[in-house]
């Protein structure tokens, strides 16, 4: 037994070994891909923009489908979000697509709170995922992920600058979701105006510190195309589901008296660029960013809010069990304390009231003591008077008796006299 | 959606969204998603942790080297059977291998000393502890507030080597597999298969599978697929379980081909010859087709079992939680929330009751007070009346007395007068008589 045995095998040194032949684990990516294809993919888009700016049309154009949409009215009291889920399939790939529309955005007179329902919706989806993740018995692998992977922010084609509502809303959303700003109805702006407009928008975003989604440039396979696309933001798009014959082809386009705006013509608008970036090249990265960055941020804030920490005051790492146990102890102690407090409050209340009632009793007692004394006094007086009267009456009676005896002897004398 | 609605989001929770089927009318591009996934996974690289368990001398190191066509175990890094220990150890070695642009971080966990002692009771315990500690590490990493890229060192597959006795499983084999089948994917292998003839091997396999079923041991199950081709292959594998393998570090020339094999006087047992042993099947299954599934089953089944048991214990502090299975669908925090709400309700009720009792007592006391006040009042009234009656009586008596006195005095006066008159008349008469 060599002395170095234990050392060699218990340290974390990673050896690089060369293979003597074809082992076959280069099929691992294929195994992973095959599993994901079987599971199916899921993608959630949030469209934020004023009523009538072309959100629904763009979705129909992007996904080459007629999604059901009633036209929204301009008279909504507030902003509300309408999610719709669709099952799509292209070749052997199944996609569960959820499109969330912001109905009523930008229609109110006071738009101060317009962003709130949007933020609330995004947070709710994060919260639902977090709750599932925290459950004791959970099933994350067949959980329908509703977290928003991309927010397409539709900018009105004024040609001047961003509206303050746009800046406020994007600022509130940029830490919660990947944002791609797009200029809607781009067929109303000329090329030169568009160029100026794009520069203005990007500079306003930068100066206001709004973080929009950057197409990733760390993977050599796509870094070039992504880098060049980053320079074309925001994409100026035109949407259309109508088909027009141009030359000998039928293309999706908008027919004007002065010409035909072709949706898929890259010199007419950036629609193809948007489709490439959003769907064909970076869809997976958008999902990853949502999970690894935005969701983690939400989760961290939520857990910190609930009082979870990774280390105790002595910087010793907590184990999950310790954390839960500590929380539980705190929780039970809290409950007990509340119970004690309530009991104590009652004890005090009882004491107070008892004292009050005793006081009242005493007062009553005193009152009647006083009355009793008065009464005794009166009684005494009456007795005195009675005695006086008795004395008088006795005196009178004696007088009467004396007088009577006297008068009794007198008439005898008279009679005696008469008899003589 | 009436105009009276305020800004409430209509978002439904999970499971509330009905998905509509839609057909695409043209090119969209998400069929490229699998390629995006492929690209990203290659960039990330892969990890796999493989555990090998078996008595020493069964050819484990040789097999690993054969499987991965590399010198994982070498004179500088000897295999488990050469690292004889007094007690069972669990040790790991990490190697980085590259093939076709794919990076794989392979962790081989071996158990030197397993089954080699005279008394092997509990020799599986260090293995169980190791697997659990890896689950624990992952659970803690997953539960941190600040989560970073979590390295996954959970054991994803366990190759269990059965000695080629030709009879059946040994008690140690059964004990080990029974204790570990719910913690890790177990793939039982018959080691040194070149010591048995095909018929003996067939018999042995049947016996082993029978015993595995008898003891209800759950070895790794190949997943069902919709693909007919794949299902055929899976069924073929299932028929040959447990796989009988031969490993070799030496390359021999056979019929002009250089193959891995074992040279005997009577011939060469070729490792990669399907008629000689099941090595190729093992390799294809373990590495080329089912590696991802082994990882998934570890993550979705074995790890989740560990996690839910661990968290349930924490939440209920040992209270029997089979009473309400429904409670396991919550997180421990949600559980605490519910308990808190229950407690608040209970406290409210208690408060109400105490209030009621209190009110009632106060009412009683007040009533008593009022009663005694009334009583005293009454008595006072009574006494007053008495007194007044006495007063009146006295008054009457006095009046009477006065009247009497007055009348008597009046009478006396009249009598006096009469007497006076009488005496005067007498006087007069007297005077008259004298004359």
UniProtKB/TrEMBL annotation, chain A:
Domain Septin-type G: 39-305
Domain of life: Eukaryota
Transmembrane stretches, start-end: none
Molecular function, one GO term: GTP binding
Similarity-based family: Belongs to the TRAFAC class TrmE-Era-EngA-EngB-Septin-like GTPase superfamily. Septin GTPase family.
Keyword annotations of the record: GTP-binding, Nucleotide-binding
Encoding gene, per UniProt annotation: septin8a
Name of the protein described by the UniProt record: Septin
TrEMBL record, chain B:
GO cellular component, one term: midbody
Chain segments carrying region Disordered: 372-410
InterPro entries: G_SEPTIN_dom, P-loop_NTPase, Septin, Septin7
Domain named Septin-type G: residues: 44-313
Classification via Pfam families: Septin
BP-aspect Gene Ontology terms: cell division
Bias kind Basic and acidic residues: ranges: 372-407
Keyword Iron: no
Annotated localization: Chromosome, Centromere, Kinetochore; Cleavage furrow; Cytoplasm, Cytoskeleton, Cilium axoneme; Cytoplasm, Cytoskeleton, Spindle
GO molecular function: GTP binding
Keywords: Cell cycle, Cell division, Cell projection, Centromere, Chromosome, Cilium, Coiled coil, Cytoplasm, Cytoskeleton, GTP-binding, Kinetochore, Mitosis, Nucleotide-binding
Family the UniProt entry places it in: Belongs to the TRAFAC class TrmE-Era-EngA-EngB-Septin-like GTPase superfamily. Septin GTPase family.
PANTHER family recorded: SEPTIN
Protein name: Septin
Taxonomic path: Eukaryota, Metazoa, Chordata, Craniata, Vertebrata
Gene expressing this chain: septin7a
């Amino acid at each position: 037994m060599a002395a170095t045995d234990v050392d060699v095998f218990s340290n974390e040194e990673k050896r690089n070994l060369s293979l003597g032949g074809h082992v076959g684990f280069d099929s691992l990516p294929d195994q992973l891909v095959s599993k994901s294809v079987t599971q199916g993919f899921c993608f959630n888009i949030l469209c934020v923009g004023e009523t009538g700016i072309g959100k629904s049309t763009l979705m129909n154009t992007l996904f080459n489908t007629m999604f059901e949409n009633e036209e929204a009215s301009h008279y909504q009291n507030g902003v509300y979000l309408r999610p719709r889920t669709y099952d799509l399939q292209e070749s052997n790939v199944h996609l569960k697509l959820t499109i969330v529309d912001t109905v009523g955005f930008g229609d109110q007179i006071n738009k101060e709170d317009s962003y709130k329902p949007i933020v609330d919706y995004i947070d709710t989806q994060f919260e639902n995922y977090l709750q599932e993740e925290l459950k004791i018995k959970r099933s994350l692998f067949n959980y329908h992920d509703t977290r928003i992977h991309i927010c397409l922010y539709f900018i009105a084609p004024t040609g001047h600058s961003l509206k303050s509502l746009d800046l406020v809303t994007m600022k509130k959303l940029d830490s919660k979701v990947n944002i791609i700003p797009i200029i809607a109805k781009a067929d109303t702006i000329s090329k030169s105006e568009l160029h100026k407009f794009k520069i203005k928008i990007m500079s306003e975003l930068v100066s206001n510190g709004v973080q929009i989604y950057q197409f990733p440039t760390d993977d050599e396979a796509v870094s070039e195309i992504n880098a060049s696309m980053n320079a074309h933001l925001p994409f100026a798009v035109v949407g259309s589901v109508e088909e027009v014959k141009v030359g000998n082809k039928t293309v999706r386009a908008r027919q004007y008296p002065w010409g035909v705006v072709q949706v898929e013509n890259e010199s007419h608008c950036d629609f193809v660029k948007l489709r490439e970036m959003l769907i064909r090249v970076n869809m997976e990265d958008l999902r990853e960013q949502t999970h690894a960055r935005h969701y983690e941020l939400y989760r961290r804030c939520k857990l910190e809010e609930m009082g979870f920490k990774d280390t105790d005051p002595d910087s010793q790492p907590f184990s999950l069990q310790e954390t839960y146990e500590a929380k539980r102890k705190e929780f039970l102690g809290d409950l007990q304390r509340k119970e004690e407090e309530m009991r104590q409050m009652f004890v005090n209340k009882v004491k107070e009231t008892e004292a009050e009632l005793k006081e009242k009793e005493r007062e009553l007692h005193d009152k009647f003591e006083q009355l009793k004394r008065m009464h005794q006094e009166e009684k005494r007086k009456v007795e005195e008077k009675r005695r006086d009267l008795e004395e008088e009456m006795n005196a009178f009676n004696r007088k009467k008796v004396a007088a009577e005896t006297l008068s009794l002897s007198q008439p005898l004398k008279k009679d005696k006299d008469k008899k003589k | 959606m009436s105009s009276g609605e305020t800004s409430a989001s209509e978002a439904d929770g999970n499971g509330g969204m009905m998905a509509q089927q839609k057909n695409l009318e043209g090119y969209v591009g998400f069929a490229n998603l699998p390629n995006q996934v492929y690209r990203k996974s290659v960039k990330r690289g892969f990890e796999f942790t493989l555990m090998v368990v078996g008595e020493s001398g069964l050819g484990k190191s040789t097999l690993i080297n054969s499987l991965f066509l590399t010198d994982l175990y070498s004179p500088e890094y000897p295999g488990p059977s050469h690292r004889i220990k007094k007690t069972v150890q669990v040790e790991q070695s990490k190697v980085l291998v590259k093939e076709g642009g794919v990076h794989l971080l392979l962790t081989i966990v071996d158990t030197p000393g397993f089954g080699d002692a005279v008394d092997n009771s509990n020799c599986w315990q260090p293995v169980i502890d190791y697997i659990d500690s890896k689950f624990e590490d992952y659970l803690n990493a997953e539960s941190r507030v600040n989560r970073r890229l979590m390295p996954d060192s959970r054991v994803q597959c366990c190759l269990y080597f059965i000695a080629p006795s030709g009879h059946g499983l040994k008690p140690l084999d059964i004990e080990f597999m029974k204790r570990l089948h719910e913690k890790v994917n177990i793939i039982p292998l018959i080691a040194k298969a070149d010591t048995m003839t095909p018929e003996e091997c067939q018999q042995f396999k049947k016996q082993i599978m029978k015993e595995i079923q008898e003891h209800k041991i759950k070895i790794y199950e190949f997943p069902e697929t919709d693909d007919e081709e794949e299902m055929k292959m899976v069924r073929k594998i299932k028929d040959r379980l447990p796989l009988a393998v031969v490993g070799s570090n030496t390359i021999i020339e056979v019929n002009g081909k250089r193959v891995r094999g074992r040279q005997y006087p009577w011939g060469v047992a070729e490792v990669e010859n399907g008629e000689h042993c099941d090595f190729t099947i093992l390799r294809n299954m373990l590495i080329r087709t089912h590696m991802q599934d082994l990882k998934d089953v570890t993550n979705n089944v074995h790890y989740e079992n560990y996690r839910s048991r661990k968290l349930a214990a924490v939440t209920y502090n040992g209270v029997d939680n089979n009473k309400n299975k429904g409670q396991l669908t919550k997180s421990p925090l949600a559980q605490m929330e519910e308990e808190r709400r229950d407690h608040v309700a209970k406290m409210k009720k208690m408060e109400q009751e105490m209030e009621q009792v209190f009110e009632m007592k106060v009412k009683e006391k007040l009533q008593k007070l009022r009663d005694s006040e009334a009583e005293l009042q009454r008595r006072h009234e009574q006494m007053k009346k008495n007194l007044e009656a006495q007063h009146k009586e006295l008054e009457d008596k006095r009046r009477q007395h006065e009247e009497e006195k007055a009348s008597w005095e009046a009478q006396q006066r009249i009598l006096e007068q009469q007497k006076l008159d009488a005496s005067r008349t007498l006087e007069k008469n007297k005077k008259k008589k004298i004359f």
